[in-house]
What does this fold into?
Amino acid sequence: MQNPYLPYPVKIDDIVVETEDKNLKTFTFVFLNPADEERFAYRSGQFAELSVTGKGEIPIGIASSPSEKGFVKFTVNKVGLVSSYLHNMQKGDIMGIRGPLGNSYPWDVLKGKNVVIIGGGFAFTTLRSSIVYMLANRQDFGKITVIYGARTPGMLLYRDELMAWEKRDDIDMHITVDGTNDPNWKYNVGFVPTITEKKAPQADDDTYAIICGPPIMIKFTQPVLDKAGYAHDHIIMSLENRMKCGIGMCGRCNVGKDFVCKDGPVFTLAQLNTMPKEY
Amino acid sequence: MKVIRISKTEWQGGLDKARTGYGLYGPVKEGQDDHAFRPLAPGEFPDMSYKNSKMSPKELVHPQSEPMFQYNLNPADPDHDIMREIAKDATAKAVIGIRPCDADAFLLVKRNFDTPIYRDPYWVTAFESFTKIGFACNQACSATAFCTSAGSGPFHDAGLDVLLVDTGESYLAKVVTDKGQHFLDVCGFSAPAADAASQIESLQKKAESTIASSVNTDKLKDQVTTELYDAPFWEEISFACINCGTCTFSCPTCWCFDIQDETKGKQGVRMRNWDSCMYPLFTLHGSGHNPRGTKVHRVRQRFMHKLKYYVDKYQDGIQCVGCGRCIRLCPVNIDIRKVCNMMNGYTACSCAVS
It folds into this structure.
């Protein structure tokens, strides 16, 4: 019997400090057993349990894209026991990853459609995965619009990639910050909901919005999307809850009858409307 | 229906024969007024005079603490920092004298641990290693038992391999599965009981008539989940709760667990331990946010899970077998029967109907 709790052993191949507060680092892992990479076949929007031996596991969204081969990437916020220990680990250290877990963004539904990605703060990891995936399969999608904001320019994740995407003409980028003293800042200034109101395309049957961000951003972005006419089954969100097993067994991450880890983390707003607000 | 008659004089001898092929488990007297399900040492036999154990026998399959993996943190070891599986005990075991409600509970829990997508190897291996020799209740174990209205009953054989019925001078053994037949063969119990069916039926009727309390569950599936969630009674139901977790730990159908790494020196194990939705830490996010931050949330979660989310998810029954343990053991007298009937009979916003 396959043991779904057994992590694949991996080596830390690279560590990048992402943000000016140094609280977010991106870890690149390579599998110790090359065959495990194939077993770990994933879709954008899924997550995995990062297993630090002797400390425990944390559920983290996969930041790399299925179109990127030879490694997997995770951006980790320093918060608790495991993530703090992980932040002090070094290149070459051995740990584990377990997954992929959860359902992913609905790529079968999104194929051939326009996609609007709205992200805030450090919840941009699976959105990065999605953008890289869509750009690698550009012919499968209509118009791609990205609205991504952080408090300051230094708090934006994946800055080099954001700038590279800005220069492309097959993706409509709207980077924003809450505020900045940088006189050379040539992008938007303003909160994500405000920029969404100005830049998001009007809704139609073929346009889906994926929102990922802090609760306050979601709370104020949703009315904007409502006004722009987005149907609630065209608004796609990714939830977070405390997890342990990641496979729907340990019982803690449920929202109503659904487990965020197994039935989610991705739900449409139409689904969330029928569920208790326990997230 | 095949029934074997086991005279009480041949009972212990038969069980002794079974020890060659099975590890035997059964109820053993513990303290003044309790029984626990334990491995039976040579010469030790299940205490068939017991009513039921305070704690459910779920621990046989889902131990309160269980090592999952072992690891080594010594960098000189080529295996360091890699989780290694711990061999699981799949040897044949038999639990003698388990009550029908508790055996039925394993089937409800199985839906969680044995799914089309994932199978929990610890739970499934332990579950499959057991042959369950049930013991019908000739009378209600307690005034708080409500098994007959919770999808189970004193003579219910779901989840069992054999159901034993005590007739005084002998046991009638109803063979439920081939696994059960095999156990009886190993014991050497083979005397057919000719007129047993009618005898069992009359004992069953008598036993069922002693189950004095009941719940109504017929309307639960048609209730709107979010309306029940917002019902005004949760505040009152949870008011006295002290979040001790006794209800979840004693419940045969509660399975929630935590996973923790425990290290001593350079060696360690990844453990799993029972956890409880009654505890604030159960759902506390790293950010400090807690989606079930108050006891109203947590008490509601327990009852909604058992009586509504489970119903929504499986469209079949409730996640409760009516053993009554949580009612007997709750230090502040929270009563699932009362809550179940409130949920079942709830009408949201009756003000709209004029």
Remarks:
- Chain A has a mean pLDDT of 96.
- Chain A touches chain B through 47 residues (CB under 8 Å).
